[in-house]
Amino acid sequence: MKIGILSSGGDCPGINAAIRGIGKVAIAHYGIDVIGIRSGFLGLINKDFIPLNESSLSGILNLGGTILGTSREKPFRKLIFSSAEEDKPHIIKDNYHQLGLDCLVCIGGNGTQKTAHKLSESGLNIIGVPKTIDNDVWGTDLSFGFDTAVNIATDAIDRLHSTANSHNRVMVIELMGHHAGWIALHAGMAGGADVILLPELGFDIDIVKKAIMKRTNSGKLYSIVAVAEGIEIKGKKNKKYKHPATYIAETIEESTGIEARETVLGYIQRGGSPSPFDRNLATRFGGHAAQLISEENFGRMVCLKDGKISSVELSKVSGKIKSVPSQNDLILQGERMGISFGI
Ligand code: F6P
Asked: Is the pTM of this model over 0.90?
């Protein structure tokens, strides 16, 4: 057998551990040949690939990013002026066969798993591997990258406490997550934030102000507000904000008179070495992907369910997002101990 591996969408810590896991188990345990497709689906369109062997898969476990590169190429996206030669799904299918592949492993988030499903429907043998710091891939309890991002974000919140305390300020920190609030919830709770705002819950700015004032009136002269990048700002007086944290900090300062500052943590959450947990999750996902291939059990995405590695049909995953449920136990316990979720 011969398989191709690609990574697509935004990078995250643990992709190299997954490539290594798939590749080493495929080669050493199942005797499968492996190539790496460069720059996501773009590499399959351009036949841009590298052979992967035990020596090129060594020494990459702890590396951030992806040795294969990535892109946000979406081959099924309809372009208004596309010609027959630009029929990307067709080109991908041709190149898959020309390269002699028996399976394509797609490491990526929601968008990647959607493309993976479409390629699977078109007759290719596909296995999906979920990766994203956002933790919003449907069908898996966790995706690798998330634990590392939560560690980085928690460390950042820890550091904001001392400077907030010294200046009696409100520190607003904006965390990634696209439309989901998983990083803000987990890092906010682990970092001891006083207010946590999630896209899934919405928020009322008056309730946020009241929560800050309540702390001030009880003698707590500084506060930490963790904000997910995806929260929606309503009634923003015609002013456009690139970052919701800016709006939250400005509004708190204007209405309470307490100095407020914002920090947008950004891509630092996505960079650098994966945590041990993410390395091992990626390794387990990778090994299981190789096993599914050896069993010719295609059209599936590997996943973590109730602590066990298994897999789910790509058709079930495609087009869905895993959001934070309002009855999440961290939210429940947070509310019970007086943390405001702005609602
Ligand atoms: O999906 C991961 C993620 O880091 C999101 O949290 C963020 O919104 C997005 O990617 C930004 O990605 P890029 O700027 O690379 O398109």
From this structure: yes
